[in-house]
Amino acid sequence: MSWVFLRDLLSGVNKYSTGIGRIWVAVVFLFRLLLYVAAAENIWKHEHDEFECNIKQPGCENVCFDHFFPVSHIRFWALQLIMVSTPSLLVIFHVAYRENREKHHNQKLYKNPGKIDGGLLCTYLISLILKTGLEIFFLVLFYKLYNGFKIPHLVKCDIKPCPSTVDCYISKPTEKMIFLCFLVATSCLCIVLNLSELSYLMFKYSIKCYLKRHVQKQQ
């Protein structure tokens, strides 16, 4: 899978982010995207082929794998990365709208089309809320699908057509567990960064409004 489009998206939104937003971009790019491409994708590449059960009943191994891994971890994280990065497009589209509006009217309508204020501030806040909501949604979904954030060494399966309770073994469980913990930790870090940036912008805007009203009263 080519991740060039996601890299370009993160680079584009980085121009309009606050300091906290730039840290979020760095975490997503360095500790999630690069880790996924460089290591995690290879570790889970042959997870189905390396899933072994102690019985060769036709179909048993397949149904057990599907039961314990309803969605491939690697595809789940790929979808998560794409979805949590997509709300950033709202900011890029809004800036593009401002620039096109200036070209259409052939005059300077904004001091800086990429400055986070007015309508762009609302768009930015909405993107932060969406990113935070999607991060939490995917963490909860992962927890529900796999009964926790863990990679067991052994799973017991008694689903038909297995004739009895079958022991199935997952390859490289310790290595996978380490990467799972790291990816979950970076996802939680991104949630904290999004909430911090959201609080910072709302506090900054509130102070700005308060000072503006105070000046108006003084006048």
UniProtKB/TrEMBL annotation:
Gene for this chain: Gjb7
Matches recorded under Pfam families: Connexin
Transmembrane segments: 21-39, 76-97, 118-143, 177-203
Organism: Setophaga kirtlandii
Coiled coil: none
Function of the protein: One gap junction consists of a cluster of closely packed pairs of transmembrane channels, the connexons, through which materials of low MW diffuse from one cell to a neighboring cell.
Membrane topology: Multi-pass membrane protein
Name this protein carries in UniProt: Gap junction protein
Top-level division of the source organism's lineage: Eukaryota
Any one annotated GO CC term: connexin complex
